[in-house]
C-alpha cells in the first residue's frame, strides 16, 4: 500500500507521462484527494473554467482519466457478460482493477463542492463579473504551462501549428452567444449533459460555458435548487453516457499520441481565455480596459490568481522531485 505522498513520480511535476494505475492508494490520502477533487468540481460551476484544467494543475488528470477508462471498461464487460451468458465475473475482475481509494474521494469532493459552488460561486460571478473573470484569467493563463511541460518530447514546429488551430477552435467555442431555453425537455437535457460533461476531461473547454451556449446553465441551477429529480436524473444519465463515450478515446490519445494531444489541450486552454477577459459587454463582446485607474484592481486580482496557480504547479513539481 502507498499513500498519496508515496505515489510514483509524475511527469513534469503534475501528472505521470504514462497512465499506469498505482499499486494502491491509502485511505489516509482521502482528505487531500477529496479537496483536490473539490477544486475540479468547483471549476465546473464557473463559465469559462474547465474542470479538466484544474485536474491538470492539481495532478489528478492522468489518474482520473485512467480510473474513468477502467470503470467504462467494467461497464462494457458487465453488459457483454450478461448478453453472452458469461455472468458477472469479467465485470468483477475489471472493477477490482480500479483504484477506488483514489477515485471515490475525488468523486465525493467533486460532487460536494460542485453543489456548493452552484449556490455560492456562480452567483458571485454574476454579481462581480469583472473581478472574478480577472481572477480566473490569471489562473488559467499560468496553467497553460502544465500541458506544455507534460509533452514527452521537445516542442516542435508541428506542435505549434496544432496548438494554433486549437487556439482558434477554443476561441470560437467560448465566443458563441448563450442561448435561452425556458423549459428544456428531458431529451435535450440528456444531450446537453452528454456534451458538457466532456469538459471535465478536456482541459480548456468549460462545461458551464457549453451549458450556457445550449441554454441549460440557468435551468440546471434551478433544477438543483428545486430538487427536480426528473431533470437531475436526465442530466446525470446523459453525463454518464457522454463521459463513457469519450473517455476511452481520450485515454487512448494520451497513451499513444500524447505530444499532439497536449498541444491541442494547451491551445484550447489559451483560446478559452477569451471567455475570461475581464471587460466584456452584455453580448460577451470584448472591450478595452476602461482606464488605468479602473484596471488596477482587476490586474492585481489576475496577478494574484496567477501566483496561486504558479505556487500549486511549483508545489507539485517539488513534491515529485522529492520522490523521484
Automatic annotation (TrEMBL):
Stretches of the chain forming a coiled coil according to its record: none
Regions crossing the membrane: 102-124, 130-148, 160-179, 185-218, 230-254, 291-315
InterPro entries, A to Z: VCA0040-like
Keywords from the UniProt entry: Membrane, Transmembrane, Transmembrane helix
Region (Disordered): 1-24
Descriptive protein name: Membrane protein
Species per Swiss-Prot/TrEMBL record: Isoptericola halotolerans
Amino acid at each position: 500500500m502507498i499513500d498519496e505522498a508515496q505515489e510514483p513520480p509524475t511527469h513534469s511535476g503534475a501528472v505521470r507521462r504514462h497512465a499506469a494505475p498505482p499499486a494502491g492508494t491509502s485511505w489516509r490520502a482521502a482528505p487531500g484527494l477529496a479537496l483536490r477533487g473539490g477544486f475540479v468540481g468547483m471549476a465546473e460551476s464557473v463559465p469559462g473554467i474547465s474542470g479538466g484544467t484544474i485536474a491538470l494543475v492539481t495532478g489528478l488528470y492522468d489518474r482520473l482519466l485512467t480510473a474513468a477508462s477502467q470503470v467504462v471498461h467494467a461497464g462494457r464487460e458487465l453488459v457483454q457478460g450478461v448478453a453472452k451468458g458469461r455472468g458477472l465475473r469479467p465485470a468483477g475482475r475489471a472493477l477490482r482493477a480500479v483504484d477506488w481509494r483514489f477515485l471515490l474521494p475525488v468523486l465525493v469532493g467533486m460532487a460536494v463542492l460542485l453543489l456548493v459552488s452552484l449556490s455560492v460561486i456562480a452567483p458571485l460571478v454574476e454579481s462581480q463579473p469583472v473581478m472574478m473573470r480577472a481572477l480566473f484569467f490569471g489562473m488559467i493563463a499560468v496553467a497553460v504551462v502544465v500541458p506544455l511541460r507534460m509533452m514527452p518530447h521537445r516542442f516542435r514546429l508541428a506542435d505549434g501549428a496544432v496548438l494554433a488551430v486549437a487556439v482558434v477552435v477554443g476561441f470560437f467555442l467560448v465566443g458563441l452567444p448563450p442561448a435561452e431555453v425556458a423549459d428544456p425537455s428531458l431529451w435535450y437535457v440528456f444531450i446537453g449533459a452528454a456534451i458538457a460533461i466532456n469538459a471535465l476531461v478536456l482541459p480548456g473547454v468549460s462545461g458551464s460555458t457549453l451549458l450556457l451556449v445550449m441554454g441549460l446553465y440557468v435551468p440546471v441551477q434551478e433544477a438543483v435548487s428545486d430538487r427536480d429529480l426528473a431533470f437531475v436524473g436526465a442530466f446525470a444519465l446523459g453525463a454518464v453516457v457522454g463521459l463513457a463515450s469519450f473517455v476511452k478515446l481520450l485515454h487512448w490519445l494520451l497513451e499513444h499520441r500524447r505530444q499532439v494531444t497536449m498541444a491541442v489541450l494547451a491551445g484550447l486552454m489559451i483560446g478559452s481565455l477569451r471567455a475570461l477577459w475581464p471587460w466584456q459587454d452584455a453580448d460577451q463582446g470584448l472591450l478595452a480596459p476602461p482606464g488605468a485607474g479602473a484596471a488596477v484592481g482587476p490586474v492585481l486580482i489576475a496577478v494574484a490568481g496567477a501566483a496561486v496557480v504558479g505556487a500549486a504547479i511549483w508545489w507539485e513539481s517539488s513534491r515529485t522531485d522529492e520522490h523521484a
